[in-house]
């Protein structure tokens, strides 16, 4: 029997992050879940353990804070003995016209999407190097890192930067057998997006495949990158958008 792998997934209280964590647990991967919302994080952890006993551990907190990142890694190693996979899924979106976008919103987006992602990669890589044997890191980008979308200049900038980070880490981490890739979701049905009652209809009309993604569609892409099936893939971005970036139709 092979070594049981251990993963960290941020932003895992619901939506895509929770779907990724559930997929890992179903495949026998132990999971440390992180979310800013402690109640969501705890509930998600319990839901996984109810189906897959003793497979999940919750570490709530702001994923942009290095101390919280350190805690995730410490708890993974303390409770599960190692770390093999990291999914930097946490991110925040701030819509706003470029000409009036506030400094506070810019700082919030940058703090979580850039700082949190960068230092999670750094701290995880240190642990993976210490262990030896390599590992897999997946960063969460977005279709707007590939194609412009009105009122998302700051957010889109961070997502394009995340993809460049993955490419740069090929140079930094490949010698340690650590692979770094990104998944770029398009319109996806989550608790947050479904707060907009027009979301499903709008994106069904402008997505070439005729429907937005479900969270499991994104989870499958993430887990592929972390699997042995992708053992020779690094520095790449996989767009999961039903073809939207090929046509670029904008929502009204």
Automatic annotation (TrEMBL):
InterPro entries: NAD(P)-bd_dom_sf, SDR_fam. Keywords: Oxidoreductase. The keyword Oxidoreductase applies. Its EC number is 1.1.1.-. The keyword Oxidoreductase applies. GO terms for molecular function: oxidoreductase activity. Pfam families: adh_short_C2. Belongs to the short-chain dehydrogenases/reductases (SDR) family. This is SDR family NAD(P)-dependent oxidoreductase. It comes from Lacihabitans lacunae.
């Amino acid at each position: 029997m092979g070594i049981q792998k251990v993963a960290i997934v941020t932003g895992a209280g619901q939506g895509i992050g929770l779907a990724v964590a559930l997929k890992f647990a179903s495949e026998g991967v132990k999971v440390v879940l992180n979310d800013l919302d402690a109640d969501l994080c705890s509930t998600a952890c319990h839901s996984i353990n109810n189906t897959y006993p003793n497979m999940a551990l919750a570490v709530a907190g702001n994923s942009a804070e290095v101390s919280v990142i350190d805690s995730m890694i410490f708890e993974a190693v303390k409770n599960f003995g190692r770390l093999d996979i990291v999914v930097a899924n946490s991110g925040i979106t701030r819509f706003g016209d470029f000409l009036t976008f506030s400094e506070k919103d810019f700082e919030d987006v940058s703090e979580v999407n850039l700082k949190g992602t960068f230092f999670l990669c750094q701290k995880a890589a240190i642990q993976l190097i210490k262990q030896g044997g390599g590992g897999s890191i997946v960063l969460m980008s977005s279709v707007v890192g590939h194609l412009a979308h009105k009122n998302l200049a700051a957010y889109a900038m961070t997502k394009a930067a995340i993809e460049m980070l993955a490419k740069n880490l090929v140079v930094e981490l490949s010698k340690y057998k650590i692979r770094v890739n990104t998944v770029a979701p398009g319109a996806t049905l989550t608790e947050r997006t479904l707060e907009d009652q027009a979301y499903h209809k709008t994106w069904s009309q402008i997505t070439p495949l005729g429907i937005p993604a479900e969270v499991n569609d994104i989870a499958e892409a993430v887990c592929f990158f972390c699997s042995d099936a992708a053992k020779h893939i690094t520095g790449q971005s996989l767009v999961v958008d039903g073809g939207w970036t090929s046509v670029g139709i904008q929502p009204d």
